[in-house]
Amino acid sequence: MKVKESFSRKVFNVINYIILGLLGLSCLLPLINLFAISFSERAMVDANAVTFWPKGFSTAAYEYILSNKQYYQSFAITIGRVLLGWIVNLVLIVLVAYPLSKDDPRIFKCRKYYTWFFLITMVFNGGLIPTYLVVSKLHMINSFWALILPEAMPMFCVLITMNFFRGLPKAIEEAALVDGANWFVTMVQIYLPLSKPSLATVSLFIIVNHWNAWFDGLIYMNLPEKYPLMTYLQSVVLKFDVTKITSEQLMLNPKLAEVTGRGIKGALILLCTVPILMIYPFLQRYFVSGVVMGSVKE
Predict the structure, then answer these.
(1) Residue limits of the ABC transmembrane type-1 domain (predicted)?
(2) pLDDT tens, 189-239?
(3) Of 1.20.1090.10, 1.10.3720.10, 3.40.50.10860, 3.40.50.1820, which CATH number belongs to 60-298?
(4) Which of 49, 106, 160, 209 has the fewest C-beta atoms lying within 10 Å of its C-beta?
(5) Could you give the CA distance from residue 135 to residue 220 in angstroms, rounded to a whole number?
């Protein structure tokens, strides 16, 4: 039965849609401006004549970036980091969240102590210098594992998954145990298939975190060719200066005469942002149910 909305409710919905639409537009406008700048010719960009539409269409900025070997190296490192980091994170999250979801002390006697132990890590950490010393002593400087292991088990994602497991009917687990399944089989064959919304939600968090991370690449990688994509982006945004381009560089790459610093930075930001934006629509339908059902319960 369809419930008729009151006039005040309709007004609220209209105002709500307008406000959310304006907020969404405010998030898109900077990207649209970067898009316009990246496809505009140098004279228009230098004259600050570009707003939300390219002027003097030019692809020189993209041609320069896509001809740069380091862009492909950094992109490959980030893809590898996202894939391996997602696997490592998800495996550890599930292996920790499943036993912590058991409230019965007869099943897991020390659950309370382990829960507090992990929760403390959300509030306190060793700090930058001790973490760097640990990574250094483990000989992971300039190693791919330095980008994976320090953030191998995000506790926030463990909490979401743990509470989602606690919300599943216990009768299903009890039936599996009666039929002869052990705890590991129950987790893999019963809980994981039922936890797609939660796993998709934490996967989105993991992927975005690994894709956007740049600081760890900056402090753990001493060689620019080992930078992940966002660290490479940060170095370009801060250090690229067209006024320092030499005549030898122009002879090797004539496209440098047609680009501006703002065009290069805008094009690179878009090239780094678009891939992660393409993933979100595939996981968005699980996002709300995963977060709500995995939220903290009394």
Answers:
(1) 75-283
(2) 888 888 888 888 888 889 889 998 889 888 998 888 889 989 888 888 777
(3) 1.10.3720.10
(4) 106
(5) 8
